[in-house]
């Protein structure tokens, strides 16, 4: 499953993701965009909701 979370400021250090299932592991990737276009995706971290 892929989801997009948009609208966070470039200075944001956290984001809220709805719809995750407790006990499942998720890998979070981050992309950035600017006037030159889209950057390469980077692994921002792995999360496991409680």
Automatic annotation (TrEMBL):
What's the superkingdom here? Bacteria
Q: What is this protein called?
A: Fibronectin type-III domain-containing protein
**Provenance organism:** Kitasatospora cathayae
Lineage at the top is: Bacteria, Bacillati, Actinomycetota, Actinomycetes, Kitasatosporales
